[in-house]
Design goal:
Largest sheet: 10 strands, antiparallel
Distance between the termini: 109 Å
Shape: elongated
Radius of gyration: 30 Å
């Protein structure tokens, strides 16, 4: 066995997911072609006179909609995948370092320091240095984009993440722990046992939710507003209030009102609290009471309070009378008799 093949074998033995071998080679062209089939076509070039030290390893445990991968290169290599197109890649460094350059920014990743999160629509170039090895989580693009749309209440559109994930922060620590757990689970199962569908769904949901809610991306603002974590626009809330004014006699439909505001129901409720100091139902009650007061003031002879109240959507007359007295300082009957 040659020195190069000995080196490849030694590095393969120390790899994670070593029972899931897809690629183990010391040939650059073979590595680019084989790993390109698994991920996407890319240019792969040894740099800094690393041709003699080159080796490539790729181990992959695949699941429904995502996979976890161990990828390592001997020496230093330049990798140019362009746009990933079909998937997102979260790259968690184990050794060495990687210089990552996207259309938006440049960063250097390394163990305990920084991971990278690559988006499929952003061109990317990387240089992996000093025998760099990384655990890579691959997430299907459609899964991420459809979940972002659902969380933000918007149409499906591209999602582009901030590529830097600080490993010393809460998100980085959470991701590190979950990915280590996933890798250990896959290693325990081995390549001949499949992860139960329920467990795979739990892992998928876990990664989608933590990344879309905790890492900043192009849909973060929409998600924050839709879920009530950010201020809804006062203009949107005024539209809802105007709608309530004109449709006060109709049953309250929070889903319809949220659609008018362009937010989620929770965000709508929080927005009313913040901007109007009241709830949606309390505002509707106040509007109905004002309409009742106006109707009583212009009532024709013989009109009954109960009929007017039912017309305006009141079904509990005692509650209506109590709320009316609190607002106007007299009972509906007193208003009607006073102005008759």
């Amino acid at each position: 066995m040659t020195a190069v093949s000995n080196e490849v074998s030694a590095r393969a033995e120390s790899a994670r997911l070593k029972d899931f071998v897809r690629v183990a080679t010391a040939r650059v062209d073979d590595a680019a072609e084989a790993i390109g089939r698994i991920f996407c076509p890319h240019d792969l070039t040894p740099v800094d006179r690393s041709g003699r030290d080159f080796s490539a390893h790729h181990n992959c445990a695949g699941f429904d909609g995502f996979s976890v991968n161990y990828v390592a290169y001997g020496g230093s290599v330049a990798i140019n995948p362009g746009c990933l197109d079909r998937f997102f890649l979260l790259q968690m460094p184990l050794s060495g370092s990687a210089a990552v350059r996207t259309a938006a920014r440049e960063l250097t990743t390394g163990p305990q320091h920084c991971a990278s999160l690559l988006s499929p629509t952003i061109p990317t170039e990387m240089t992996w240095r000093d025998d760099c090895a990384q655990i890579i989580l691959l997430l299907d693009r459609k899964l991420v984009e459809h979940r972002a749309a659902a969380l933000g209440g918007v149409a499906v559109r591209p999602v582009e993440f901030d590529p830097a994930v600080a490993l010393h922060g809460p998100l980085g620590q959470t991701l590190s722990a979950r990915i280590e757990h996933l890798v250990s689970t896959a290693e325990q199962l081995g390549p001949h046992k499949s992860l139960p569908a329920v467990a795979a769904a739990d892992w998928r949901e876990s990664f989608l939710n933590v990344l879309l809610n905790e890492q900043r991306h192009s849909q973060s603002s929409a998600i924050d507003v839709f879920n009530g974590r950010a201020e809804a626009q006062p203009a949107a809330l005024k539209r809802v209030r105007a709608f309530l004014e004109t449709r006060a006699t109709e049953p309250l439909d929070l889903a319809e009102l949220a659609e008018i505001a362009g937010t989620g129901i929770r965000a709508l409720q929080l927005g009313f609290r913040r901007h109007f100091g009241t709830t949606v139902s309390e505002m509707l009650l106040d509007i109905r009471l004002a309409h009742l007061n106006a109707r009583l003031k212009t009532a024709r002879p013989g009109e009954r309070i109960v009929d007017i109240a039912f017309d305006l959507g009141f079904t509990h007359l005692s509650r209506m009378a109590s709320a009316y007295r609190a607002k106007f300082g007299e009972s509906p009957k007193a208003t009607l008799q006073r102005l008759s």
